[in-house]
Amino acid sequence: MRYLLSLSLLLLPATLLAQGKISGLAFGDFYYIAGHHNEALRNQNGFWIRRIYFTYDQELDDDFALRLRLEMTHPGNFTAGNAVPFVKDAYLKWKLDDQHELYLGISPSALFNLVESVWGYRPVEKAPADLQKLGSSREFGITLRGRLTDDGTIRYHATFGNGEGTKSEGYRGKRAGLALQFFPTEALVLEAYADYARTDVGEVLTTWHGLGAYRIETFRMGLIYEAQHVQMVEEGDRVLRYVSGFVVAQASEKVKLFGRADRLLDPNPKGASIAYIPLAPTSRATLWIVGLDVAMNDRVHFMPNVEIVTYDADTLSTDIFLRWTFYFRF
């Protein structure tokens, strides 16, 4: 009887998992740093995995669904380390009606959810707001998403939560954000976004952006302006502004070409802590990205690419990252 009970406990998770859907993805690189403003990183090279997702989705009934997702990454600070898992998504989705949904828990934030989708090459590089550390890709709290018109021409994505990404909160500050999205045609995408947050050290952050993009099956391009104002407690206020543009074009049945340029209009004081591609925090800069997307099939892609960072300061050498990026999903 004891063995039957143990067997039942082992089979229970498999039975529950069978009621939903398991999916995932992974991407990483072999990289070589041909040049860098930090001499210690010049000629650095190696293999790493920049993201692994393991996702479980389940429809509970006509109104409720859940998602649980684990993420694992290798350290992006050029030190040895294992890929440590953590909870990336954990939310209950409540379908309020045909046009509105409520999310409770850890879910995608409105800051760059649409931007990342339109850019489409997260395995190559993060969306600009994520890369420059303007905020997190996740919000722990309450999210409302839906359509403001019956045809879906105008949509919204509103969040209210801890402002700490996937972490719990140990202070009284919160983050509230709202994105209004416009789809006047099937090809045209427009978005206006703004948020307000208080940090654990008493800083007040205000972030906003405007996005315009055009996308069809064989071609897409987009332009975004983004800014963040930080009101500091003891030091003077600071502003980070940038413009980012990208283009993706179908070259053949299985090959696409992509390019992107991010122009920093202000130095980013967090630049040195950016994972996988640390930037100089003392100078304005331009990030250039060019590469190929070779689709081996629908689930496996190889994407050789080059990332180059040029600095306005003459004393800083150009950063050159050569990457052979792989991506697969299941």
Features:
330 residues; Porin; 16 strands; mainly beta
Protein topology:
Layout: H1 2-17, E1 21-35, E2 45-59, E3 64-73, E4 84-95, E5 100-108, H2 113-119, H3 128-131, E6 138-147, E7 154-161, E8 175-182, E9 188-198, E10 204-216, E11 219-231, E12 238-250, E13 255-264, E14 285-295, E15 300-311, E16 319-329
Characterization of the model:
- The chain has one domain: Porin (Beta Barrel).
- It has a 16-stranded antiparallel β-barrel with strand order 1-2-3-4-5-6-7-8-9-10-11-12-13-14-15-16.
- It contains 3 helices and 16 strands.
- The longest helix is centred in the first third of the chain and has 16 residues.
- With 330 residues, it is mainly beta.
Q: Order of strands across the widest beta sheet?
A: 1-2-3-4-5-6-7-8-9-10-11-12-13-14-15-16
| Portion in helices | under 10%
Radius of gyration using CA atoms only: 21 Å
Assign the CATH class: Mainly Beta
Fill in the CATH topology. Answer: Porin
Q: How widely separated are the two ends?
A: 38 Å
Secondary-structure arrangement, i.e. CATH architecture: Beta Barrel
* CATH superfamily placement: Porin
